[in-house]
Amino acid sequence: MQKVYKRNERGSLIVISGPSGSGKDTIVNELVKNNDNIWVSVSCTSRAPRKGDKEGETYFFLSREEFEEKIKNNELLEYAEYNGNYYGTPKEHIEEHIKNGKDVILVIEVQGALKVKELIPWSIGIFIVPPTMTELRRRLSTRGTETKEKVLERFKTAYKEINRVTDYNYVVTNDEVDEAVKKINAILLAEKCSVDRIEDVYLNNEEEEIHALLMDNVNFSSADDDIKIN
Ligand code: 5GP
Predict the structure, then answer these.
(1) Does 47 sit in the ligand 1 pocket, CB within 6 Å?
(2) Ligand 1 center–CA 157 separation, angstroms
(3) How far is the CA of 106 from the centre of ligand 1 (A)?
(4) Residue whose CA is closest, atom 7 of ligand 1?
(5) How far apart are CA 116 and CA 122, in angstroms?
(6) Does residue 55 lie within any of the structural domains?
(7) Which 3 state secondary structure label does DSSP give 186?
(8) What is the pLDDT of residue 226?
(9) How are beta strands 43-45 and 85-90 bridged, if at all?
């Protein structure tokens, strides 16, 4: 049976940003747990590993020189300097996953996200925000792992970053993680239904189809007589 249209079945490229304390990493972890069609890119960074970081899982940890070598060799889709360290997305594997229909997620900061949007206009930017700035302040202060100065610095950066929200396609408030995950799944689904994916419309046999419909309706014409709208 002929389908009505042919759509591009490639995976989506989802770019997720949000200030420190917005909970974007928790959301992405939850998202992946129940969706095996998602592949999350592992970035390179020149920052030192923190407690709990795992090489090749949280990041590929590189020296500044090694990172600069990757820039020179054009191995990165985008990169940015953030808090004095390099962060970048390796190009390798992204195209292959998208071609195979996997949804690829990049969790990156604002400058990098804008570069990806410029390079790949069909990518989808999602910005995660805390419900209120008071809540963000509370989340940052109760982490207990950082000095007051560091908390203040993160809070200031958050203000700047949130100002860029309209450069993204969607904004998701992280009040409850489950709700935020539901919203992102809905965005992924909507993206699959986007008319931008239509490559061809097959409506070639209009006359034949109409004829077939008319023939079918001959049998129902008396039943239809019952339904009269005056
Ligand atoms: P952290 O040092 O806390 O792990 O990350 C600092 C910031 O860098 C976060 O906003 C994180 O999303 C962002 N980041 C992580 N990987 C990349 C990347 O590949 N490119 C860019 N531009 N930012 C990244």
Answers:
(1) yes
(2) 13
(3) 9
(4) 109
(5) 10
(6) no
(7) helix
(8) 60
(9) antiparallel
Give the per-residue pLDDT at 204.
72
Instruction: Give me the phi and psi of 104, to 5 degrees please.
Output: -105, 130
pTM of this prediction exceeds 0.85: yes
Q: What is the CATH number of the domain that holds 149?
A: 3.40.50.300
Residue 76's beta-bridge partner residues? 90
Structure tokens belonging to residue 7: 């759509």
The verdict on residue 204 lying in a domain is no
pLDDT 10s digits, 17-52: 999 999 999 999 999 998 999 999 999 999 999 999
Residue 114 domain-assigned? yes
Q: Which two tokens stand for residue 96?
A: 């292959």
Domain range holding 123?
A: 5-38+101-197
**Lookup: tokens for 216:** 């079918």
> Whose C-alpha lies nearest to ligand 1, atom 22?
112
Overall domain count for the chain: 1
Q: Which residue's structure tokens are 């030192």?
A: 48
- State the sign of the Cα–Cα–Cα–Cα dihedral 45, 50, 54, 55: positive
Distance CA 15, CA 205 (A): 41
Q: Would you say the C-alpha torsion 174, 179, 182, 186 has a positive or negative sign? A: negative
CA of 91 to the centre of ligand 1 (A): 16
Does residue 161 form part of some domain?
yes
